[in-house]
Amino acid sequence: MNRRHFLGALGAGFALTAAPRWIQKAFAAEPSSKTLVFDAYRRARRGRRPLLVFIIPADPAKRWQRGHAIGAFITHATDAQLASLALCEVVCATAAHVHLLVPGAPAGEPLAMLIDTTAVPATVDAVTVDLDNPVTVGGRGGNWQEREAAANKIVQANIDRIAVAVGDTIERRAGTAKPALAASARARLSDIEIPGARWAHSGGCGTTYEHPDKNAPVVAIGCGMGFTPEKSRRFLFLLAKPQTR
């Protein structure tokens, strides 16, 4: 059995139920997403840029899957796919806190909301994407290489869907210098922490963080029976605090 992977049925179940405790214990000092989204709005308005808010779902299970999908997109997207993000201020926040900022924002929890910070009052477009779960091809038995390839195809399909949805919303602002824009986006998003999230890795036994807090606990189970496709191992751990005001 390949013991490098961790996120099958047992691993995913543990991660999803443990996530709220991690937030409470490991990230007690993290600011509320209300603070993050309001600060990001002010930065975007000063820079005359739109604000792209990746929405943190209220359901921890959806939060885990979405964090993997967004993380894979930022990490593995092509220059052309990532370029448009260079024109936006980016933050991760809850829909409830977006509605405090812009009461007329669309209802629900789309993948993201794009806020036009130059408009008064601000206008918001929902970025909606249907995501598939690559973990569904995991589990026990079968050929690991075949399952890895099948899972990575699902991850890539999610990347392409996010790229199209985000690009269709803000492409008109992207211009033609996509390689330079993509490099700028990676420097701001992939190489450092995004407000409202932390870059993390899950591939063997437990979750590790690229910028660890010395007081944060290390969570691990030595079962080695799970499955995480290679393109999903670097992901965004989406942070949220329960208060909405």
Radius of gyration: 18 Å
Mean pLDDT: 79
What is the general shape? globular
Strand order of the biggest β-sheet: 2-1-3-4
| Strands, count | 7
Structural class: alpha+beta
Span between termini: 48 Å
State the order of secondary-structure elements, H for helix, E for strand.
Answer: HHEHHEHEEHHEEE
Low-confidence stretches: 1-20, 173-177
Strand content: 5-15%
User: Helix share of residues?
Assistant: 40-55%
Query: Could you give a short account of the major beta sheet?
Result: 4 strands, mixed
Number of helices: 7
Write the layout of secondary structure elements.
Blueprint: H1 9-26, H2 33-47, E1 51-56, H3 60-76, H4 79-82, E2 89-94, H5 95-101, E3 112-116, E4 123-127, H6 144-170, H7 178-189, E5 197-201, E6 208-209, E7 234-238
Parallel strand pairs: 1-2
Antiparallel strand pairs: 1-3, 3-4, 5-6, 5-7
